[in-house]
Amino acid sequence: MSKELSLQETGAMLLAAEKIVLCTHVSPDGDTLGSTLGLARFLLAQGKQVTVFCDDVINKSFSFIPGIELCERPVEGSKLQTDLLVVIDASSFDRIGLVSEVVEAKILLNIDHHISNERFAEYLYLDAKAAAVGEVMCDLFMAMQWPFDKEIATCFYTAISTDCGSFRYANTTPKTMRNAAKLLEYGVQPNEISDALDVRSRDTVEMLAKVLPSLTFAYEGKIAYLTITNDLYDKDVQTDSFVSYPRYIEGVDVAIMFKAVEPAVTRVSMRSKSVDVSAVAVAFGGGGHLRAAGCTIYAPVEEARTQLLEALGKLV
Amino acid sequence: MSKELSLQETGAMLLAAEKIVLCTHVSPDGDTLGSTLGLARFLLAQGKQVTVFCDDVINKSFSFIPGIELCERPVEGSKLQTDLLVVIDASSFDRIGLVSEVVEAKILLNIDHHISNERFAEYLYLDAKAAAVGEVMCDLFMAMQWPFDKEIATCFYTAISTDCGSFRYANTTPKTMRNAAKLLEYGVQPNEISDALDVRSRDTVEMLAKVLPSLTFAYEGKIAYLTITNDLYDKDVQTDSFVSYPRYIEGVDVAIMFKAVEPAVTRVSMRSKSVDVSAVAVAFGGGGHLRAAGCTIYAPVEEARTQLLEALGKLV
Q: Which of B208, B265, B283, B313 is most buried, judged by most C-beta within 10 A?
């Protein structure tokens, strides 16, 4: 169980340490990277010795984030002693990969916004109402009267805008908008950020061209799905966004993406407007949220599809 | 030449009239519709006699905007006398279609945010720094202390968020964000708005599936284009967004969409990151902006493609 800190206590703990490791979660997104790198920039300017760890490949679309070159992957078997390890935007300790083995810290601090936070760290600052840890960072900087500059503001703006789908998701609050307004005052260029984030690889668009013709409707158009057959599947091609194509078709309640990652292993992601897809995902050994869930079905894609559609058919 | 009004004078003019016609521009977008309908709701609540004219088909995706059922198309040959005609978000008089012939108004007021405004109206409120007329409406309501409710806030939020690409375009300012924050406080659901706006017809996604395989690269990947051949072309299917697929591919500077609307008539739209595509469009008798332009080439699609790529090849 963690001791929950105030913003002032969190700020004081960061200022008290000399040697600091900041770490993102694996599968790094804009929030974990932007929040970590904005904080790193401030702490470096204070003369702190800062290491930034990210135990995963970072998507090229994030290469514009100021300070992205600071991110290092921890090396298996190595050891790094530090005053303070700050785990940012991870709700459980297993979300930081090798960092948990490599870093030996006197103090472990977790800064997060997930309601599912597992309170694994000794100290915790948690704001489950924040749309992003980027918002928590804005609050922290304002509470501590730490200075923003264009780079820090760009980091936190990226963090906020990516985690609320560019202010399109339900987690967008008036405070989210006011934090974003404040960051824009430091010269953040929202169009440069969104252009950088929207870039897709040629491979991804070419894969989309091959996958989109598989669009199929079921249950009078209430379910729509795409299929990546095993011969099309390429682990190096980003296809996470593809489920949005069936999702936004009028009349569709449940959108599904079937991905035959092996001849007899099918990965499934589901999005819904009203149906509880997490219940269906859990029934197949997966999980997720009410309207966004996934599972892996150990069957060839045609069979997986039949099983899942049967389960979903009872709900739509 | 128009007399430019202050917000207070604009508000006073609206309150002084009893019989008011509000009108949107043709090819109505979220800004003209949201701004017009939010203002209409307030004026109706003041007991005014309000007519809302929109001389065009309204895209189904806007059907969620509160008050959308108020929009009427003016009838050719009819006449409507009114105290005040308010033209909203149109920078020239020819942008309101038949409304200019049908309505006989004592006073003509134009509320706009386009820097290219032609000052056609007797009275004008123009804020060329506003991302949307929806922002002007927020300013007007606040200056006049007119009350917002959830419906009015939803109208203006739709107006603002559509005209700044959901806060992703360069016109998004700190003030844009603070106006949006204020509107969210009245219970606007940003996710419901974006879900409604993102909906695409089944036809559009099925057409995309047929068109995307035509993706072709030229000039070492600096140009990418899609082609809708004449046999695929269907005037009833929305394909305006398709050019974004080549546009956001890494390394692409110029993205083009060729549409064979007739066997020997090819419509071209171009988007660019650095090349001045408007110059190329003008050379083919078209026009547009530096980074978004279009033209019609009176040739079969293969020939049109060859001509345009040759012209563009000198620039990339």
A: B208
